[in-house]
From TrEMBL:
PANTHER family: ALCOHOL DEHYDROGENASE, ALCOHOL DEHYDROGENASE-RELATED. Belongs to the zinc-containing alcohol dehydrogenase family. Class-IV subfamily. Keywords: Metal-binding, NAD, Oxidoreductase, Zinc. InterPro entries: ADH-like_C, ADH-like_N, ADH_Zn_CS, GroES-like_sf, NAD(P)-bd_dom_sf. GO terms for molecular function: oxidoreductase activity; zinc ion binding. Residues 202-323 form the Alcohol dehydrogenase-like C-terminal domain. SUPFAM superfamilies: GroES-like, NAD(P)-binding Rossmann-fold domains. It holds the Pfam family ADH_N. It comes from Glycine max (Soybean). Its cofactor is Zn(2+). Residues 34-160 form the Alcohol dehydrogenase-like N-terminal domain. This is Enoyl reductase (ER) domain-containing protein.
Amino acid sequence: MPNTSQVISCKAAICWGAGKPVTVEEIQVDPPKATEVRVKMLCASLCHTDISSIQGFPYINFPLALGHEGVGVVESVGDQVRNLKEGDVVIPTYIGECQECENCVSGKTNLCLTYPIRLTGLLPDNTSRISIRGQRLHHVLSCATWSEYMVSDANYTLKVDPTIDPAHASFISCGFSTGYGAAWKEAKVESGSSVAVFGLGAVGLGAISGAKMLGATKIIGIDKNEMKREKGEAFGMTDFIKAGDSAKSVSELVKEMSGGMGLDYSFECSGVAPLLTESVEATKVGTGKTIAIGTGTEPIIPFGLTSIMYGRTLKGSVFGGLKAISDLSIVANKCQKEEFPLQELFTHEVPLTDINKAFELLKKPNCVKVVIKMSH
Ligand SMILES: [Zn+2]
Ligand SMILES: [Zn+2]
C-alpha cells in the first residue's frame, strides 16, 4: 500500500514535444508536499484543448503529462492540508479560488489572483511531482489527468460527493461546465431571452443547458454535424441550424429565425475563426452579448469590427466564469443529482493504454466525449 513517503511508479500519457506522438509510459509520482494532495485517478476524458496542447498551444512546456479533465480519489495528503483527506473523491481544477483577493471579492470574475491559472504547467512552487526517467514532466496547466496518479495543490482541488458518476464528474471538470458557466455567470442569461450556441460539443451543450436552466425560451444550436441535433435537443435546444447547408451566412439564418432582429445572447464554442464575427452579428444591435469560449489554435484572427460598433458586447471567458470552489461545487451537486442528461455526452470509452484511439474517435460524427479508463 503506498503512503505519503513513497514514490509511485505508474502509467501516464506523455507528449515529448509539439506535434510529437502521444505515448503511454511509466512515470514517477513523488509524494505530495505540505499543501498538496496525491490523487489516484478514477477516470478522465478528452477535451479539444488537449489536442491544442499537443500542438504546443497556447502556453505549453514539454515533456508534458497530458489531460486536464478527470476525477480521482485522494491517496495521500501533505501535512498542512486541512480541507481534504485520504479517500475523498476530488476533481483537480486548473484555477483556484482564495475568496480573499481583489478579483475573488469583486464578484465579477473567477480569475483568482492568489491561485491563478498555471501557464507554466508547474505547481505553485514552480516544480512538479511528476518525472520520467529522472526528467521533470509538466502538466497541462496544473493537471495531468491521463495518468494513474497525479499531485495537485489542495487549492486547485475540489471535493465532490463520492456517489457522483465518475464519467459525469470528469465531463464537468472542464468542457461542459465552461459552457454552462458562460450562460450562468458570464452572460447571465435572462428568463424569456433568446440564445444562439455555435458548436455543439460538450462546451456548446453546456451553454444550451445553462441557458435552458435560466429560462431562455429560444435556444438555437448551430453545428455542421447533423448528428448533434438530437444531442442539442436533449439539453434544451429549441431550433437547429446545420451550418454549411445554405448560401446565406449563419448570422443571416439566425436573424431570419428571430424576426430579423437577432438574439439576446450568443456563445461561440467552436473556435472556428470566422464564426467569432458571425456569433456577434447574430445578436441584437445595441444590446446583444456574445461570450467567446471556443479555443482555436490561431492566436490572432480577423474580426469584423462593425459587428461590435453597434453597441454589442463581446466578452472572453476562462472556465465559463465559474469559481473553482463555490460555483463548481454547485454544478457538481447538480451533476450528482442528475439534473443534466450528462449520459448524452458519453459516447466512447478507451483504456489509458489506447489513448491514441481516443483522438481518432473524437473525429467521428457520433462522438461527443471519450472517457479514458484507468487500468488500476
Ligand atoms: Zn482569489
Ligand atoms: Zn478543457
